[in-house]
């Protein structure tokens, strides 16, 4: 294959599978098209042989197995730089306002002291001078109060915008579920507390077929529908989208059999439905997901996310549309 054709194939492959164009993702795709006999190429072909989309997690697993370097994932959403700049500006304005008020107070104290000294010396005009000084300070204080009131209103609005921006940085824009960043933060909190936890990874079955046959807009609708189904079926538990057609559920305080019961009921509700395209009523058919559930308590060896991932692969290899879980 010519170099330009390889380049085009790599770009199409990354786009089709929703993989970010990091150097190691590019290297994995390069191995697939430029060195078809390599271990990386063989592993990729096996992973997508049944029409499944190659997720970032699967790509990282393959890269680790064949010795390709795994780079850090793209940095998750961050707070709007314009909001941060506005916050810094507001802090600077407050600092300047406080400094001006401090200087005024110091000047007022000096003038009052001088007036008191003149009063003690019996100077008759000292009282009038003190009145003038006090009125001037009252006027300056009133102006500062007005500035502080306006700054308070602006700061409240800025705080609300910052809160919205922080929340958006932790939310998946397509499904409005928490994203990987929010999931990882919550998981770290639970692990730090040592609380009971069952962790599930869910993956939509044969999602690539849906995208290829009906287009990405229908694929996006399917992702949103599955997200809503998981959120409703696992109400009270954190459901997050961690990329592509993959979701995680954090069942806090539940053992794996109970978590599996809840998730399996949700799976059955989804699998019992037959879907049609809203534009034409053409049948899409059954949409299902597979899942793996690991015990998050540290009595088990290894990372719970990786163990749930292995159970998910077992569910896929076992025929899909099923939930596999560790014994409690």
Brief rundown of the structure:
The chain is 61% helix and 11% strand.
Give your account of this protein's structure.
- The protein is of the alpha+beta class.
- It is 61% helix and 11% strand.
- The chain has helices at residues 3-16, 23-34, 39-48, 56-66, 81-120, 126-168, 180-193, 207-214, 216-233, 256-271, 304-317; strands spanning 197-204, 238-243, 246-252, 275-276, 283-285, 289-295, 323-325.
- The longest helix is centred in the middle third of the chain and has 43 residues, at 126-168.
Mean pLDDT: 80
- Taking all Cα atoms into account, the compactness measure Rg is 31 Å
- Which CATH class of the largest domain is shown? Alpha Beta
Query: Class by helix and strand content?
Result: alpha+beta
Strand order of the largest sheet: 2-3-1-6-7
- CATH fold naming of the largest domain: Alpha-Beta Plaits
Helix content: 55-70%
Oligomer: single chain
Strand content: 5-15%
Set out the fold topology.
Blueprint: H1 3-16, H2 23-34, H3 39-48, H4 56-66, H5 81-120, H6 126-168, H7 180-193, E1 197-204, H8 207-214, H9 216-233, E2 238-243, E3 246-252, H10 256-271, E4 275-276, E5 283-285, E6 289-295, H11 304-317, E7 323-325
Parallel strand pairs: 6-7
Antiparallel strand pairs: 1-3, 1-6, 2-3, 4-5
Quickly list its features.
single chain, 328 residues, alpha+beta, Alpha-Beta Plaits, five-stranded mixed beta sheet, 11 helices, 7 strands, 61% helix, 11% strand, elongated
